[in-house]
Specification:
single chain, about 260 residues, Rossmann fold, seven-stranded parallel β-sheet, 9 helices, 10 strands, binds 2-amino-2-deoxy-6-O-phosphono-alpha-D-glucopyranose
Length: about 260
């Protein structure tokens, strides 16, 4: 893991966008993994800015969502396909027909998960995956206790996650769906490159467990320790509980040329 600590989320968005631009410079039809939540929004804004200024094009890109709520009406603004369209696809030049997600209204949820997993394999896998992390250390909707080898599967959301996400549902936890379809931890680990962004003090415990804790299903983000191309992008508040902060800053300050260190 390469741990990068910057003062503002805008600084982090620039680091992420540079890494994404580098992937698209090499491979204009690269497959981008897109995440929901508020943490990645500055990254989408920065990608949008670069598309508008002409330094990046996603016209040939394909994008895959991490997860989707089960049972929300197709046009519900918080359905993740609508979130991703609004916050990412509408503000870049990606073809809307090249943005894919799980179907949370499928009648056979297991079959839908298998179809989605195969769709990712079918395009040759995800080249670069954007991730956030939940306060309990989850990535996508892989709550504590989820197998670190899991593939796309139906998930039951914990009370903590539903409380966290109630802010998108008029503050009413009862409106937050209880189930989702999510890429598994194993699916995410197949991505060639991963950018995880976390900001704010409410992520500090999860970040500590993910980066310095044991690899454990108690913090599914900790599985990223097993991947060799991960950048963890943190503001000071999210990094505050890391024991080896000085070490990470030293590595970053003295990094060799090249955006990916294979860490
Ligand atoms: C949800 C999403 C995750 C996201 C998490 C944190 O649970 N399924 O992919 O990382 O929220 O969201 P935020 O960035 O808003 O804190």
């Amino acid at each position: 893991m390469e741990i990068i600590i910057k003062p503002t989320e805008q600084d982090l968005a620039v680091v992420a966008a540079e890494a994404i631009c580098e992937v698209y410079a090499d491979k204009p039809n690269a497959v981008l993994g897109v995440a929901t939540g508020s943490s990645p929004l500055p990254i989408y804004q920065e990608l949008s800015r670069r598309v508008k200024e002409g330094s990046l094009s996603l016209r040939r890109a394909q994008a895959f969502q991490l997860d989707e709520y089960v049972g929300l009406p197709q046009d519900h603004p918080e359905a993740y396909h609508n979130f991703i369209r609004r916050e990412f696809a509408d503000i870049t030049d990606i073809d809307h027909n090249s943005v894919y997600g799980e179907d949370g209204l499928a009648t056979d949820l297991l079959a839908e998960c298998q179809r989605y997993e195969q769709a990712i394999v079918g395009v040759g896998g995800i080249d670069i995956q954007i991730l956030g992390i939940g306060a309990d250390g989850h990535i996508a909707f892989n709550e504590p206790g989820t197998s670190l080898k899991s593939l796309t599967h139906p998930a039951v959301l914990t009370a903590q996650t539903r409380r966290d996400n109630a802010r998108f549902f008029d503050g009413d936890i009862d409106k937050v769906p209880r189930h989702a379809l999510t890429q598994g931890v194993g699916t995410i680990l197949r991505a060639r490159k991963i950018l995880l962004i976390a900001t704010g003090s409410n992520k500090a415990d999860a970040v500590r467990d993910m980066v310095e804790g044991p690899v454990s299903i108690s913090c599914t983000g900790s599985a990223l320790q097993l991947h060799n191309n991960v950048k963890v992008l943190l503001d000071e508040a999210a990094a505050a509980k890391l024991e080896r902060q000085d070490f990470y800053r030293e590595i970053y300050a003295n990094r060799p040329q090249g955006a990916w260190l294979g860490l």
